[in-house]
Amino acid sequence: MDILCFGEPLYEFNQQPDGRYLAGYGGDASNCAVAAARSGASVGMFTHLGADVFGDSFIELWTREGVDCSTVRRDPEAHTGVYFITHGPDGHRFSYLRKGSAASRVKPEDLPQETIRRTRILHVSGISQAISESAADAVFAAIALARDAGVKVSYDTNLRLKLWPLPRARAVIHAAASSCDIALPSLDDARLLVGLEEPEAIVDFYLGLGAGIVALTLGADGALVATPERREHMPAFPAEAVDATGAGDTFDGAFLAEIAAGRDPFAAARYANAAASLATRGYGAVAPMPRRADVEALLEKAGG
Questions:
Q1: What is d(CA 299, CA 290) in angstroms, rounded to the nearest whole number?
Q2: How far apart are CA 29 and CA 69, in angstroms?
Q3: What residue ranges in 161-261 does DSSP mark as E strands?
Q4: Which residues pair with 14 in a beta bridge?
Q5: What pLDDT score does 249 carry?
Q6: Gap between the Cα atoms of 118 and 277, Å rounded
Q7: Would the N or C end of the chain have less CB density within 10 A of its end CB?
Q8: Torsions phi, psi of 4, nearest 5?
């Protein structure tokens, strides 16, 4: 497959303007997998799910979206994680019910080794490592396995300070990022993790760790994309944003789908910016994620 995503899926309840909660899907790795699949990539998902209705629903989602879930395991002794999104003047807020989840119980010996060896890009994140020590160890083991097999590693820093203290997050995330080929930090996360303010200095930091491609997302300002030879600011596409919950994960999935298809990082980032813009026009992480035809229509409207 083109991309294998490893991380914790979370069943989503997203508050609507009338106060009711809309059911949906979340979890950065799963979101990335769906976004990449909708952009035409061959994608797989590895995780553990609870033997519950939320786990059943994820299997149905991935099957419907064409995401291979043959390596996903069900844990009868643990639950699938759940989270709630509320909206206010300062943006969206997350509340989680994830402690002891099935995904947090993944260990290095649970990894689908042959699947990792056969994929082109392994995608993991800081959240994948923050949910438990065993999951953090499993991510490091997956990265080592991928590198030994010549598989590219993509890493989104995705800092969640509700899950772990900043000093530990820095140590673990920097260690993982130093073994990645594609670094996908956000500006807000990177400022805390790296201690630098300017985007140019931040991409220099991640290039210095060894990444061959850095795509630093800048929210409404687009993305700064860099390789050791070139860097370019890729502007965002205008959007009447309703909910930005899945925008970053949509960027990741769309970007990786384009990289897997052989596009250069700068063309990939333009496409991913367009996809992320479209993903903010509806509620929830997955429901508003665009398909390739929608992204290409926006790109054509914007002038190629």
A1: 13
A2: 13
A3: 182-183, 213-217, 223-226, 231-234
A4: 22, 85
A5: 96
A6: 32
A7: C
A8: -115, 120
Q: 202-252, pLDDT tens digit by residue?
A: 999 999 999 999 999 999 899 999 999 999 999 999 877 777 878 999 999
Whether 116 contacts 4, CB under 8 Å = yes
Residue 200: helix, strand or coil by DSSP?
A: helix
d(CA 104, CA 8): 7
DSSP assignment of 26-66: E-HHHHHHHHHHHTT--EEEE-EEESSHHHHHHHHHHHHHT
- Confidence category of residue 304, pLDDT binned at 50, 70, 90: low
2 catalytic residue (yes or no): no
Q: What pLDDT, on a 0 to 100 scale, did the predictor assign at position 32?
A: 98
Write down all domains in the chain, each with its CATH number in brackets: 3-302 (3.40.1190.20)
CB 96 within 8 A of CB 81: yes
Torsion angle in degrees (nearest 10) through CA of 258, 261, 262, 264: -10
The catalytic position among 249, 252, 264, 294 is 249
